[in-house]
Amino acid sequence: MIGPVDAGRLAVTKLKTRKLRLIITLVISSVLFTLLLAASFTVRGTINSVEKFNKTGFGDRYIVSANSNGSAIFNALAQPSPELVSKAEALQKATMDKKTAEAKRLGIEYDPKTDVRYVEEVDGPAGKMKSLNMQAPGVIKLLADEARKQPGQEADFIKTAKKYGSDKTFLSMMNIGINGTPYLEVLKDGKEDYSQQSFNRSPGPSQGLDSLSSQIQLMSRELLKPFIFNGQSLEAGTDGSVPIIAPYTATEQVLGLKSLPSSAPAEQRLERLKEVRTKAAGYRVDVCYRNSTSSARVQEAVQQQQEIARNKGNKEYQMPALIKAVPSAPCSDIVITSDKRTNEEKTRDSKQEEFDRIFGKEAPESHIIKLRIVGVNADLPQGGSASVVQLFQTFLVSSLGIGWFVPLETAPAQTPLAKVFNIGTEQEAFAQKTFYAEFNSPAVLKKFLEEQNCQPDFSKGPAMPNSDPFKQCADQGKYFNVSPFGSSSAALDDLKKVFNKVFMIVAAVMAGLAAVIMMGTIGRIIADSRRETAVFRAIGAKRLDISQIYLTYAFMLAMLIGFISITIGLILSWTLNHTYSDAISVNALVAFNVSDLNQKFVLTHLYAKDILYVLALITAGAILAACLPLLTNVRRNPIRDMRDER
Known about the structure:
This protein is an alpha+beta fold. 51% of the residues lie in helices and 13% in strands. The longest helix has 50 residues, at 543-592.
């Protein structure tokens, strides 16, 4: 009888034979499992690190955001009902009649034909069709009234969320104003930039201080709390300062720091993060707000001064009777440097101003708003090729979104902020309002998404009959476009489940391939040892003893493959971690607002279940690979094998 120790010695001896075939088998089989285990160590490390960072920010919270589908506005603009068109035409006639009478009373000229039209005719697929003009104040009121009547308001969202067990709902709003974004400018060194460029910022995503006008929004205080610095408050300051969470790049500019290049090492970026957090906490920033009338007056003064400068020395140029200059103090009204108008011209201009004011033109208004930085928000990723760091950064989702964030509760108490967001005006109905609901589990969140998310049909053109893309949603009682918000928690749970399933399937397939490869090697070893096996049989060894030798050989081969795969897989994962961990850590510290700046984002984690599962599959594959040739071998006639010279 051959004992386990002797079987082991004989198996080791056989490992030393046919070394080239053995090496090829080890290399090919190990490569398959090395890549799989390297992926396991890295993905598990990433998930493990995200879960650790998740203890701050929105990390382990399950929140959805929802926007009204906008069906009412879509219909009113693309296909206004005859009733709405009639209302607009009647309102236009009444307004023009009133303007005519008022102009006659004031003794100024007014021509209804040159006034803005509430209803315009445009070309459509079926010929001429009537469209509403959003530039007309009366139309804005009609559409605002129409929007308020439609489902999809905050109260509807709260009611819907409660059906799914959520009693935590929040709100944010951004002014996308009919007349464009509000004019907001950070006063650098206490000065306002009156250059023409400051009034014509390019639309769309931008970074830094120029993003303030287009990216400032109000948000419920409860959503902002996880993102403020230690020791800071979301309450208005005793000096009237408004708390704000500012983008990282803008904060650097406020502090007078030049942004680091993208190639800056992680150590330098970490030191910059520490510097920004230390200096920015409680930092006051003066911002100038101008309403559209005030902004237009400054632009007019700038243009007039530029025209005068261009015509300097031109004897044929006639100077304006009323010469305007830019404000003498930041965020104040323009300065009149020369007024050579006649009394008649002054009276006429005064009456025109009164006429404009009666019919809705705002008086010029400007205010300095004191902002107090209480937190820093991650910037919008810029274009360019995707780097490894950017790929891993997709996991780092614990964010408020893009932009500047002010507590919603602060706005009503701050008159300038209320004006920035058109609170209490007709235009508030067109603000981009987002509703939020927090749930207790990812399962409830997913159910809410599946059952309440509106997926509009945009296959029809906007001017075609019955082309409302939101109609199908409305018919189903779905009035919101819903998506996960602020955290990757739900996605992370899904990723774990998907990765577990994919890992098990891929590992099983690879084990099958490895078994086929090992079968060739083990079969060759068994075939080469037929005479040896016959001798053992002749001196009394049983078939089970012979099988034990080759099964031990197969087990050792499996352990070698497993050892090589685990070792090289770890080396690959550690190399990835060593190369990118520091850079990703800095991004994670900003994204999750982690107070401990020494916390590291580690990309390697040994998950025992994955390792044991792979080793078990490799072993099973090796045993199966040995069984078929072994069954054939032990059934052979030992006498014949001993006589066989081959």
